[in-house]
Fold this protein.
Amino acid sequence: MADLILRNARITTLDAAQPSASAIAFADGRILAVGDEAHVMARARDTTRIIDAGGRRLIPGLNDSHTHLIRGGLNYTLELRWDGVRSLADAMAMLKTQVDRTPAPQWVRVVGGFSEHQFAEKRLPTLEEINALAPDTPVFLLHLYDRALLNRAALRAVGYTKDTPDPPGGQIQRDKAGNPTGLLLAKPNALILYATLAMGPKLPAEYQLNSTRHFMRELNRLGITSVIDAGGGFQNYPEDYEIIQKLHADDELTVRIAYNLFTQKKGQELADFQRWSGMLSPRQGDDMLRHNGAGEMLVFSAADFEDFREPRPELPADMEGELDDVVRLLAEKRWPFRIHATYDESITRVLDVYERVNREVPFDGLHWIIDHAETISPRNIDRVRALGGGIAIQHRMAFQGELFAERYGSDALKHTPPVRRMLQAGVPVGAGTDATRVASYNPWVALYWLVSGRTLGGLRMYGDDNRLEREEALALWTRGSAWFSSEQDHKGRLAPGQFADVSLLSADFFSVPEADIPDITSVLTVVGGRIVHGDGPYTPLAPTLPSPMPDWSPVNRFGGYQGGTLAQATAAISHAHGKHCQVHEHGHAAHHATPTHDLRNFWGAMGCSCFAF
């Protein structure tokens, strides 16, 4: 009998045996029944909770096959998110508000997740604007993985002076006297960017627990129920996994996590994986938190950074030998593995190594992954298929399409990545975000990109031959992603026996205008048959969270992703500017309500630049 039933829903099951339904029942964390109401309600008992879905669209819970939840969670409540903000004027108003509420010696951090092209102004702020806005509070602003802007207070905090040398692959921009200006550039190595960010104050453990819970709840708000964490620089095992392990032990995880381990020391990659493979068996853990193998960094010599402002990096000659040693060990230990590879030239050399190792230590069904693959060729897609691998794609081009086109041309842009060709070849494909720095964690932005073929700035990148139908795109975010944690038999479809992970949507993904897809959220999210998020009429059903910590956290004031609906924008701008503009005396709610016919561009309507004052 059922613990929970959702009825009066428009259910997309992604199960070929029963593609649609109107009701679904859960018991013991699994799906018990799916079908019409008469069939499902027969599973009810006196204690069954029955929820009316109000005719809304219900889908399998979304699964991000490549993100960085564990690292992002440790810092979420420290960060001001510009994800989804439509104008620089409004972004800077938010920044000014946060500067005013942040106590010394803390920093204000905007750590990726946005693109200059999403702004109506089509530009980043200048250092002069940031310094005028924040003369005393350190401000660190990361744009993708190509640059960071630090105000003078942040330069003092990190100790960069005219005597600080440029690191390999990075540049500290200087004025005529040789003093740092505050602009840090990846050339194309992003180490300078995240090494500088790592110098900022960190949250104590109690606050990191709180921060991670709020980040998971934010993902639940967007319909995410599972992720695969791809590790990250400065994310050491086991030290930086203690918070997520504690939350798991306390039964406070609201997202299923499969995690990969990312090597931390250049020149000691093999030693890292030898040590870790002695600590963890393949896929050790349970259905809420599970080890998922190695990567996305296997050896530093194979890293081809995705900074399209810079020329493609040529991998060093010793890459193959180093990668061979690591992959051979992983195959022997039966550890799944994944590797970051943006360019086809890199993928060719990686596959040469994999084919050689496979001849001597057969992969034999071991799940291995190429991550990103924006310029992969048809030949290499076929090689991936022949070796039994999969390709994890993300919406990085929605943030960088304009930059790619400037360097390589619009024709080269048309298949970045060639998703349709991958699917035609029969390669397992999973979708994700690569959040939180190089792209937003919002899955609906990624779904918009797959369906529309456009950047956040509106550039049309793909023709019909590389855009997906909406159900195809949704399948990559559910069934497709499940393969990448070897859980394709347990999640991704709404069928009896599958995990009871579902999202009830704020708007119907299959019928809303294309431009409105990024603003979809979940009004009710269920993980393992347990309600983990509720909004609107379902708010009382969700467990309460303690307030974000610290009390000056940007999340307390602004929340996370800044959706483009009129209500969301009015609330955010009221917080940022105040109810009435102190300069122009207009009411901001009315001010931002003006272009209601074009909700994607109403941020900053009428050109208000209140942040400057």
Summary: The longest strand covers residues 180-186. The first helix runs from residue 37 to 41. Residues 441 and 451 are 17 Å apart (CA to CA).
